[in-house]
Amino acid sequence: MRDDIIEDRSRLLRLQGFLLLKKSHDVIVIGAGPAGATLAYELGKRGIGVLVLEKDKLPRYKCCAGGVTSKAAKLLDFDISEVTEDVIYELSFTFKLGRPYLGQHSQPLIYTVMRDVFDYFLVKRAQQLGAVLMDGQKVTQIQVSADWVEVSTADNIFRSRLVVGADGAYSVVARELGMGRSIEYLVGIESEIVVPEEELAKWKSRVHIDLGCIPGGYAWVFPKRNHLSIGAGCLVSKARYLNRRHQKFLNSLSMG
Ligand SMILES: Cc1cc2nc3c(=O)[nH]c(=O)nc-3n(C[C@H](O)[C@H](O)[C@H](O)COP(=O)(O)OP(=O)(O)OC[C@H]3O[C@@H](n4cnc5c(N)ncnc54)[C@H](O)[C@@H]3O)c2cc1C
């Protein structure tokens, strides 16, 4: 029974891929993160046909502090309040967990979001303008010929004259085209921590960042609607310190 379902699904995917091949897309965007989704949206606005290929099934969790700067939010021509977790007016900075420096502003500085919700919201905006999303399609190979760029996934081969790699830090597109080899990567660790309401209230509208506690990086607290995203990131070359220093940062916040 289960084999039949898998076989049917695989046939359906092949048929879907065939139909998509027949209906050619002006642009294939690989990756449905904020870069891919907003590009698909902008192309859709201009009447350009887009196929978005995403390796994960959406919506998908992503390890991220989820801070959208107000400058970035202004680049969008639609409102993001329905997917906003908190609005940040205050920044506090410490150096090596020392005395905090506070900065306040009368206008929003940052909107916090959960990336599963936010990224999916952006993709849906692009779909409303005609972009076709195929999720669960991990791109494995790119082949460039004189007339086409051919994009392979496990189930399908797609073709377009224009392919955009928006597949994030470990981009297959960049790898296939021999780019980005000299980049030093960053690693991050984050905890989504549910705290009592009184504790959450202390962090409302405030992002906190420590510089210096994490060698080659920094640590953060980003408030969300019902919890705190507390994390740290650093250069891969300093990653050996990350777990211990992240724990030290957590302890310094005295949340019990
Ligand atoms: C711990 C941490 C905290 C961060 N906090 C912030 C923050 O607060 N504010 C901020 O602005 N930035 C933050 N960033 C950076 C932010 O996450 C990235 O800048 C942002 O995600 C880049 O968007 P993107 O669309 O280019 O790539 P991504 O968001 O990485 O999206 C790439 C998409 O491509 C898909 N994909 C990958 N490979 C393939 C493949 N082979 N085939 C098909 N699809 C594929 C992925 O599944 C993903 O959906 C943080 C990063 C980390 C690691």
Automatic annotation (TrEMBL):
Entries under InterPro entries matching the protein: FAD-bd (IPR002938), FAD/NAD-bd_sf (IPR036188), Geranylgeranyl_Rdtase_fam (IPR011777), Geranylgeranyl_reductase (IPR050407)
MF term (GO), any: FAD binding
Every FAD-binding domain range: 26-182
Pfam families for the chain: FAD_binding_3
Record's protein name: FAD-binding domain-containing protein
Lineage: unclassified sequences, metagenomes, ecological metagenomes
